[in-house]
Design brief:
Blueprint: E1 5-8, H1 13-24, E2 30-33, H2 39-42, E3 52-55, E4 58-61, H3 63-73, H4 84-114, H5 125-146, H6 159-171, H7 175-182, H8 185-195, H9 198-201
Parallel strand pairs: 1-2
Antiparallel strand pairs: 1-3, 3-4
The structure holds glutathione.
Length: 216
């Protein structure tokens, strides 16, 4: 089968989730590294977001769509359950993480450290302090969700987990995030267990945000 090309960055959480899909399913894929908002992203994604996929003559944008396409195009293990309720729960967690938690944990909290909008380039303390209650509340929700079985959905790994793990990895890199996570015992065990997976170890991101494109 044609090798899928993932266009994105090793530093991007959404790209990381798609690389985890490829690694878990043992898909032979090519990662084409590019800066944020690069022309090769705009060639596929109307708003230039990463990752995007090229598979033969087929192009696709939006990470969840890409994950679902790869899951059904390649053999087991399958990361989107067939069972109606498990499938709905998988959608539920992907949606909550992508529409709410990513904004709090990555775009607001982490970016206040790694891409701050401050005069001296130091951490944006006002933003960090303001987001802490939301960060705390969201980590508590996740801690409770993984407590029974160590997965977000049922008793097997799904894309809901692979979508969340890159975010947890990043949140732990900043001090308040690390201590809030350390105080969430189930989520800490969940992260440590899944971060030990070969797929995760093979795709560990370098520190820092993706570069910004010079040309867009
Ligand atoms: N909804 C998109 C979000 C992708 C996204 O926000 N990617 C980030 C990098 S992790 C990005 O491209 N940021 C640049 C921007 O927002 O302009 C998806 O699921 O693929």
């Amino acid at each position: 089968m044609t090798t899928p090309e993932i266009i994105g960055s090793t530093r991007s959480t959404y790209t990381h989730a798609i690389r985890l899909v490829c690694e878990e399913k043992r898909i032979d894929y090519k990662l084409t590294e590019c800066p944020l908002r690069a022309p090769e992203l705009y060639a596929i994604h109307p708003f230039g977001k990463m990752p995007v996929l090229r598979h033969g003559d087929f192009e696709l944008f939006e990470s969840k769509a890409i994950a679902g396409y790869l899951d059904r195009s390649f053999p087991a293990p399958y990361l989107f359950p067939d069972d109606l309720r498990l499938a709905a729960l998988t959608e539920q967690w992907i949606s909550l993480v992508n529409t709410l938690m990513d904004h709090t944990l990555i775009r607001t909290y982490l970016f206040a450290y790694i891409a701050p909008n401050t005069a001296d380039g130091g951490p944006d303390r006002a933003t960090i302090d303001a987001i802490m209650p939301a960060l705390q509340a969201q980590i508590e929700v996740l801690d409770k969700a993984v407590a029974p079985r160590g997965y977000l959905v049922g008793s097997d790994l799904t894309f809901a987990d692979l979508n969340l793990l890159p975010i947890l990895h990043r949140v732990r890199q900043a001090p308040e995030g690390a201590s809030v996570l350390a105080a969430a015992p189930h989520l800490t065990r969940y992260y440590e267990q899944h971060a030990a997976r070969p797929s995760f170890q093979r795709t560990l991101p370098p520190a820092g945000p993706p570069r910004r494109s010079q040309t867009s």
